[in-house]
Design goal:
Helix content is 37%, strand content 25%. By secondary structure, the chain is an alpha+beta fold. The termini are far apart.
Length: 504
């Protein structure tokens, strides 16, 4: 009897207990034991082996055709801490909290780690009353990250992507087929990226979409790294367009004979043309390093390409006034150099606080003007030596020239502007100081006439003086010369006798 008890205790009972444990173990992994009302997924031997009806309705999976990597790509956007690799049997259960809906219900995934697999159970639980504020804040923060216009993502300590926002996923959809993996960053960062400074990364996109450039920066956070990418494509295009525009301007300015020097808002030389080198005598090696405006004018002074000042202090003040005048667009001077050259220098304001100086060699123009003035003075002196009074009227009837004899004869004030004296004004003056003469109207018509312009003369007598002869002579450009010739006493007598003789 004792032997039977020993046999039952040491053989039968352990065998029965082992049988019960085997049945319970099998029940944990048998697909038929999965509760059909809960979304549940059984992953075994490298594929989805079974899933409840609720899971198939909820998730885009197919039994027997999805690997663990596929599950990672499906769940990682909603569950940032979803494990990217399988864990060994016996590991602690993993509970993941997902996104909350408007009813404040929490979706969780409970993962039971099995041998060569895992069982995923989805549970919908009501949030505790005390967690409402936290849930609302979480929803707000998630809304902020998903509405951000620039891609953002987080990697763990091994470089695997564990979270990303909507802008990141939108950009990932533009990648060529086969290049996007949810666990791998879409940006190929250098092995040792600079933490504080942005890293410029060029990203090739699929189809006809042009490549985009991003500045990627990162900050360590919670046993991982948070990355932010800011698109710089539009900025780069703008910079390239600006460079092309500057190059176009430079090519255009290269053919100008006027020297151009543009200084930016920091008063550094930003742009110059070859003519500036010729006019200032400054070398390209001096101008290319972008000297300041003070250094630029100091060098011009040393090259004697600007008027020599009486003293340096007054010259420095003059330069300060020059820059201030250029900023408001009122600076314009003519510089006469020791070499006899004359420069016209203008200062004009430019956008964004820049100023431009234009240097023009007007030596030939000044020389021509001086020669022309000398010829005018010579001509004026010549006609002033005539005894006859001369006055020239333009085609429009304005007085353009008179000599000294005319001014003395008719009391014409030299300070009076010619532009304000017309033939009508002159005839009025002549009529007031002379005897009546019916031919004044004919003289007016002759000056203003455009056709039948012939020379003719008429007698004129100023009261208390001897008679004069007024001769009207048309000249070039529609102008007319009025010449008053004094007559001597014998000439006047001869004219009178001839006029009164019977044969005359």
């Amino acid at each position: 009897m004792l032997n039977d008890l020993v046999l039952v205790f040491f053989v039968v009972l352990p065998t029965a207990a082992l049988s019960v444990w085997w049945v319970l173990r099998s029940a944990q992994t048998t697909p038929e034991m999965i509760e059909p009302e809960l979304p549940m997924v059984l992953f075994k031997n490298g594929t989805v082996e079974h899933a409840s009806t609720a899971a198939l309705d909820l998730l885009p999976i197919t039994i027997g055709s999805h690997s663990w990597q596929d599950l990672v790509e499906i769940f990682l956007p909603r569950y940032p801490n979803f494990p990217v690799t399988l864990q060994s049997k016996g590991s602690a259960k993993t509970t993941l909290f997902g996104k909350y809906d408007s009813s404040q219900q929490a979706y969780t995934i409970q993962i039971n780690w099995l041998k060569n697999g895992a069982a995923l159970t989805f549970r919908k639980t009501e949030a505790a009353h005390g967690d409402t504020a936290i849930i609302q804040e979480l929803e707000f923060l998630r809304g902020v990250t998903n509405s951000a216009p620039h891609p953002a993502w987080k990697t763990n300590s091994t470089g695997v992507v564990v979270w990303y926002n909507k802008a990141y996923s939108t950009l990932a959809e533009k990648l060529p087929d086969g290049e996007f993996r949810a666990t791998q960053p879409i940006f190929d960062l250098p092995e040792q990226p600079v933490e504080q400074a942005p890293n410029r990364i060029k990203l090739a996109l699929s189809g006809d979409d042009p490549a985009e450039c991003f500045d990627v920066c990162f900050r360590p956070h919670d046993h991982g790294t948070i990355h932010h990418a800011t698109s710089r494509t539009a900025l780069i295009k703008a910079e390239e367009a600006q460079k092309e525009f500057v190059q176009t301007l430079a090519k255009t300015f290269a053919h100008l004979s006027i020297g151009l020097a543009i200084f930016n808002r920091d008063r550094q030389l930003a742009l110059f043309n070859p003519a500036l080198i010729d006019l200032t005598g400054l070398s390209a090696s001096f101008l290319s390093p972008r000297p300041t405006i003070d250094t630029f004018f100091d060098a011009m002074r040393e090259n004697r390409k600007m008027p020599e000042p009486k003293n340096y202090k007054s010259w420095r003040q003059h330069m300060a006034d020059l820059i201030n005048a250029a900023e408001i667009g009122t600076f314009e001077e003519a510089w006469t150099l020791e070499t006899g050259q004359t420069y016209r220098v203008k200062g004009r304001p430019h956008p964004d606080g820049a100023i431009a100086f234009l240097f023009e060699d007007i030596s030939a123009e000044v020389s021509l003007t001086r020669n022309f003035r000398a010829e005018l003075e010579l001509g004026q002196s010549l006609v002033d030596s005539f005894e006859d009074a001369l006055a020239v009227f333009s085609q429009s009837g304005a007085l353009t020239f008179s000599n000294k004899a005319y001014d003395l004869l008719w009391g014409f004030q030299f300070d009076t502007s010619f532009a304000h004296v017309t033939i009508a004004d002159a005839i009025k003056l002549w009529k007031e100081k002379s005897s009546p003469n019916p031919l004044w109207g004919d003289l007016h018509d002759s000056v203003m006439s455009l056709e039948d312009r012939n020379a003719w003369d008429m007698p004129v007598r100023i009261r208390g003086q001897l008679p004069m002869q007024c001769k009207v002579v048309p000249i070039a450009s529609g102008a007319t010369v009025i010449r008053f010739s004094r007559q001597t006493a014998p000439d006047a007598l001869v004219r009178t006798l001839t006029k009164n003789s019977p044969t005359g």
